[in-house]
Design brief:
The protein has two domains: about 110 residues, no CATH class; about 70 residues, no CATH class. About 55% of the residues lie in helices and about 10% in strands. The protein has nine helices and five strands; from the N terminus they run αββαααβββααααα. The strands form two sheets. A three-stranded antiparallel sheet has the order 4-3-5, with no helix packed on it. The chain has a two-stranded antiparallel ribbon with strand order 1-2.
Length: about 240
């Protein structure tokens, strides 16, 4: 099928006979991405359906894999995202699947190797300067800079403050937990009491000794050695 001939037949017809539809769309005859201008001679009013068909034909005019084909696939992708009821384009599932495959292929081509604008580069930021910039990924990160990108430093510092406060609160709670555990453990050290009764007295789980072993391993081991009735001593663990 001669897609180029079909494309120009639509253009020529609308140049000779303007569209009478209440809703029309401006179309660049030679696409802007291919060097077309905004001059009146390069513009034509089309119905929504004709506009859709023209962009579809443009994806078929150029050979697959060429830069022109990639640009037309991307342009057609934007065309498929409707902004209003008048601009909605309806396609069947088979057509949609094929188009998505082509669009995925285009994205891979455009983002591969040195065609990617981010190729061999990385973002770094400086908190003191409140600045983000791009450098070669082969360069050393300067002192005072960190790898990453910060778009809004006001939000960045606000989030950082919240994060630091949250971490401080968590650390405080952890220290309070350790202090409570140490108090319970020392009570066990200084009194003839079983772990079961210790748990009841301080309203903690019967496996409180697991926490003793985890956070105060050496100290708890020394305490247990002085407790011949402790099950760990009986089992020969200590």
């Amino acid at each position: 099928m001669n897609y180029k001939k079909l494309y120009w037949s639509i253009i020529k017809r609308r140049q000779d006979f303007p569209c009478e539809s209440q809703y029309t769309e401006n179309h660049h005859i030679v696409p802007k991405s291919l060097g077309g201008s905004d001059d009146k001679s390069n513009l034509v009013r089309l119905s929504a359906r004709e506009h859709f068909l023209c962009h579809l034909l443009l994806t078929k005019i150029y050979n697959e894999g060429t830069p022109e084909w990639c640009k037309m696939i991307k342009a057609f992708a934007y065309m498929c995202y409707a902004e209003s009821d008048e601009q909605k384009r309806y396609v069947n599932s088979r057509f949609y699947q094929k188009f998505k495959q082509n669009f995925s292929k285009v994205q891979s081509l455009l983002q591969s190797g040195d065609k990617n604008s981010q190729h061999n580069t990385m973002w770094i930021y400086n908190e003191d300067l409140r600045l983000s910039k791009k450098i070669s990924k082969f360069d050393f990160i300067p002192i005072g800079w960190q790898k990453g990108y910060v778009l809004d430093f006001e939000k960045y510092f606000a989030d950082k403050q919240k994060r630091e406060q949250r971490e401080a609160n968590q650390q405080k709670k952890f220290q309070e937990k350790l202090q409570k555990l140490r108090t319970i453990m020392h009570y066990y050290r200084d009194n003839e009491i079983s772990i079961r009764d210790l748990s009841k007295k301080f309203n903690v789980g019967r496996n409180v000794y697991v926490s003793f072993e985890r956070y105060f391993k050496e100290e708890y081991r020394d305490i247990v050695k002085s407790k011949p009735m402790n099950s760990n001593v009986k089992k020969g663990r200590y």
